[in-house]
Amino acid sequence: MGDACGIGPEIISHLYRRGSAHGCFVVGDVSVMRRAAACTGGMLAVARIDAASSVFDVPANCIAVLQPEALPEGLAGLPWGRVDARAGAAAARSIELAVILAMRGEVGAVVTAPIHKEAFAAAGVRFPGHTEMLQALSASPGQPLPPVRMMLANDELCVVLVTIHQSLRCAIDAVTFDAVLETLRIAHRTGAGSRMTVPRIAVAGLNPHAGEGGLFGDEEVRVIAPAVAAACAEGINASGPYAPDTVFMRARHTSEHPGEFDIVIAMTHDHGLIPVKYLGVEHGVNVTLGLPFVRTSPDHGTAFDKAGTGLADSSSLSAALKMARGLAQAVRC
Fold first, then answer.
1. Taking a C-beta distance cutoff of 8 angstroms, is the pair 81, 308 a contact?
2. Which of 10, 33, 189, 254 is the most exposed place for a label (fewest CB within 10 A)?
């Protein structure tokens, strides 16, 4: 359900009102979902279920909620649009249960509503965001963390990131040969798994003009280009590094301009996400690649300024649900 003080519960309610959440259930707090149903127009039933399989026993357009044990009390009484440790703790506990269900094979995919990173920190959650938490929860005891990557996609552009939630200064140091090559491998597997066959992958540089042969930085020559060459040697259709200020335009797919590439690899968080979000956050979907289950989320945050109004746009969550279903179907096939 995401953060109880944000728009997550509301936009979930909107999906149920439109009848587009058939076969889905919410991992979260029953009282929070009832409050969300009320603020989006009322007259929407909310029912507590005891197991994932019980979702099919709930009437159509009724919000089915599987509530984790030991959630903080009084969540539905928290003020809208405020950072609260209790909301952060509830969001984390809900994610934990969703991952357990996914790892058991009881659900086909996990779609996460927005969390608030400050609320996570206030609750003592040691992860900076969803991606890192999902990575840790999906790891086998005593085994290394699985390599995961963040992908943001809409109908026109698909971007996969080498580095995610860290300072820009640290992210530059994290752009290594191994990190770039692993990102290319993950992106290739994802594209092939979604029936692109051999996805065309463009790699964006880190520096202005992709370094201009080392004049503006040597990461392209020293790290990125060798990783691209190594990926090509493995049969991956990768090219670059390209100047990051133009490669996204070349990859963008529209009816008037078929994109030259299927996926763009970006070195840092903002390099990759600004172009996708500029095209409209209501259409973007965040996908965590490399997990042993399908996970998507909307391309926006908790929108505390809109929380409680019932006016939040659920388009991105709807797109995330649609993509989750498609990816889950591809996995089954």
1. yes
2. 254
